[in-house]
Amino acid sequence: MNYTLIVYGTRKGTTTKTAIIIADTLRRRFLYTVEVSDTKHLKYYKKRLAEYDNIIIGSSIVSGR
């Protein structure tokens, strides 16, 4: 079983929506177990990182920067 964590940082919420879309795709198409978290809550997951098969990290891009 693939156990995946998606961690993202966002300023205006668009990255949150993207992370949720990616998670839903992984769940439906590939039957992955996926958890999604804002970096603000990373302390909870920090001790459990070794449990995940995949970790996806995403961030926002503002005006191409």
For the record, the CATH class is Alpha Beta
The third-level CATH topology is: Rossmann fold
What is the end-to-end distance?
A: 36 Å
Give the overall pLDDT as a whole number. 90
Specify the helix fraction band: 25-40%
Strand content: 25-35%
- Identify the CATH architecture: 3-Layer(aba) Sandwich
Overview features:
single chain; alpha/beta; Rossmann fold; globular; 3 strands; about 60 residues
Quickly describe the structure.
The chain has 65 residues and is an alpha/beta fold. The chain has one domain (3-58): 3-Layer(aba) Sandwich (Rossmann fold), CATH 3.40.50.
Tell me what the structure shows.
It is a single chain. It is built from 2 helices and 3 strands, in the order E-H-E-H-E. 9% of the residues are buried. The chain is globular and about 40 Å long. Helix 1 (14-30) links the parallel strand 1 (3-8) and strand 2 (33-38). It has helices spanning 14-30, 42-46, and strands spanning 3-8, 33-38, 54-58. It has a single domain (3-58), classed as Rossmann fold, CATH 3.40.50. The protein has a 3-stranded parallel sheet, with helices on one face. With 65 residues, the chain is of the alpha/beta class.
SSE order and pairing:
Elements: E1 3-8, H1 14-30, E2 33-38, H2 42-46, E3 54-58
Parallel strand pairs: 1-2, 1-3
